[in-house]
Amino acid sequence: DVQLVESGGGSVQVGGSLRLSCAASGYARSTDCMGWFRQAPGKEREGVAVIDSDGSTSYADSVKGRFTISRDYGDNSIYLQMDSLKPEDTAMYHCAAAISVCYADYVPTFLGYQGQGTQVTVS
After folding, report:
1. pLDDT tens per residue, range 47-69
2. At a CB cut-off of 8 Å and minimum separation 6, what does 12 contact?
3. What pLDDT is stored for residue 9 in this prediction?
4. Of the N and C termini of the chain, which has fewer Cβ atoms inside 10 Å?
5. Contact call for residues 21 and 120 (beta carbons, < 8 A)
């Protein structure tokens, strides 16, 4: 079974930073697109960032210039470095894999697997 396990969330002040990690088990397809989406209470899921097998990336407009996605192709772990955090970044952040359309905005619609999420709170 494929499992994606996120970590690194927490509470941070406005302007602070966090680094999220996603560990994949039972999933060895380094050719697939992986990424992150988030969901705040009462809001729809929002794609945040993706990284493809060739290292190309895509970001939501709301996080461009502040968030950076990276990937360890050896074990299919991905990371999300989040800087200059804002209150509107508060959400549950989920890792996603096997995203068939590798573009940030499409993560929630085209993902194949997702993790349980890690909470990020900015105040």
Report:
1. 999 999 999 999 999 999 999 99
2. 18, 85, 120, 121, 122
3. 98
4. N
5. no
